[in-house]
Design brief:
Layout (H helix, E strand, L loop, with lengths): L4 E4 L5 H7 L4 E2 L16 E9 L6 H8 L5 E2 L2 H14 L4 E4 L5 E2 L4 E8 L5 E7 L9 E7 L2
Parallel strand pairs: 2-8, 5-9
Antiparallel strand pairs: 1-3, 3-9, 4-9, 5-7, 6-7, 7-8
Helix pairs in contact: 1-3
Length: about 140
């Protein structure tokens, strides 16, 4: 089996992680204050994308990510994947880390990687409930011991 891995590097600020992704643009609302670093994310991880559609409820997508010893990704995982995709990524897709979503009574906001058809990599901050039809995949990860 060809395992896909990513590495969440230690001792990087959120801004350094964003810079490493070499995004065409990135949303300034994705800050250390909203997404403080979680030290448990540091290390080597297997990753996979869970396909989602407008018909997949948010909570159901998160449960699917957490099956069989996997977990819904956090922003550190997404940014490490973004660094890899800036070098290797092709094809349009929008990927969310469901464990780094911020909920209020009327919305769910999440950082998102958007790879455009023109090859641009954008770090967005989207309202998942409004832009749900643009949400293609949820990132699921499992720590490699």
């Amino acid at each position: 089996m060809n395992t896909k891995t990513l590495l969440v590097k230690p001792n990087l600020t959120l801004q350094e992680r964003i810079s490493a992704g070499k995004y065409y643009s990135s949303n300034k609302e994705i800050t250390e204050r909203l997404f403080p670093h979680d030290p448990s994310t540091v290390g080597k991880w297997e990753w996979k994308l869970i396909p989602c559609s407008i018909f997949t409820p948010f909570d159901s997508a998160k449960k699917i990510c957490e099956e069989d010893g996997w977990q819904a990704a956090k922003v550190e995982h997404l940014l490490s994947l973004g660094e890899m995709l800036s070098i290797h990524g092709k094809g349009e897709m929008v990927i969310l880390p469901l464990s780094s979503s911020l909920r209020s009574e009327k919305s769910i906001h999440s950082p998102a990687l958007w790879n455009t058809l023109s090859g641009k990599h954008i770090l967005c901050f989207i309202d998942v409930l409004i832009l749900y039809r643009h949400f293609d995949s949820a990132l699921s990860v499992r720590k490699i011991c």
